[in-house]
């Protein structure tokens, strides 16, 4: 933050100490974002991209605080980092099955959690969503299919 006597910010700070407290609080929140969520600085050339980056970082922080509060109620010994590491075992995959008419049946599926992770999900009073519905694609050449499955 610039000096409290610089420009408009200095005028506001001189008349409203609460403003300085809020700015300091939000700066500490962003420092916390960088450490707790492992966010690194990103330099955007366009203002709307910088705004979007700040919005995503803020939403991530809100989710982090919400998870922390939920843990205090339902699983006080766990940290948000530990929970996210446990939930990271659940992955989304696409199973591609060729059909007889040269199309592909795509079954998007998430992997089944371990018993410990299932217990955690129960403790937090969460539910996994149902598996997504299958999709049927038009005929594609084999190189395009290989590229999609590697991603």
- Rg: 23 Å
Mean pLDDT: 78
Q: Structural class of the secondary elements?
A: mainly alpha
How much of the sequence lies in strands comes to 5-15%
Q: In percent, how helical is the residue content?
A: 40-55%
Give unreliable regions as ranges: 1-6
Q: Note the overall shape.
A: flat
For the record, give the distance between the C-alpha atoms at the N and C termini, rounded to a whole number. Answer: 41 Å
Structural notes for this entry:
- This protein has 151 residues and is mainly alpha-helical.
- It folds into two domains: 7-77, no CATH class; 89-150, no CATH class.
- It contains six helices and three strands.
- The protein has helices at 7-15, 17-36, 47-74, 80-87, 115-123, 142-150; strands at residues 92-98, 104-110, 135-137.
- It has a three-stranded antiparallel beta sheet with strand order 1-2-3, with no helix packed on it.
- A hairpin with a 5-residue loop joins strand 1 (92-98) and strand 2.
- Helix 1 (7-15) packs across helix 2 (17-36).
- The longest helix has 28 residues, at 47-74.
- The model is unreliable at 1-6 (pLDDT under 50).
């Amino acid at each position: 933050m610039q000096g409290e006597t610089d420009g408009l910010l200095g005028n506001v700070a001189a008349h409203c100490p609460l403003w300085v407290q809020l700015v300091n609080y939000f700066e500490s929140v962003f420092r916390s974002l960088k450490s707790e969520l492992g966010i690194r600085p990103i330099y955007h050339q366009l203002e709307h991209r910088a705004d979007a980056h700040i919005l995503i970082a803020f939403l991530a922080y809100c989710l982090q605080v919400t998870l922390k509060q939920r843990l205090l109620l339902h699983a006080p010994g766990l940290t948000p980092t530990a929970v996210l590491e446990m939930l990271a075992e659940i992955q989304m995959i696409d199973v591609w099955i060729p059909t007889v008419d040269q199309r592909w049946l795509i079954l998007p599926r998430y992997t089944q959690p371990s018993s410990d992770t299932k217990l955690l999900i129960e403790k937090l009073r969460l539910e996994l969503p149902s598996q997504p519905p299958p999709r049927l694609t038009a005929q594609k050449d084999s190189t395009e299919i290989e590229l999609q499955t590697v991603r």
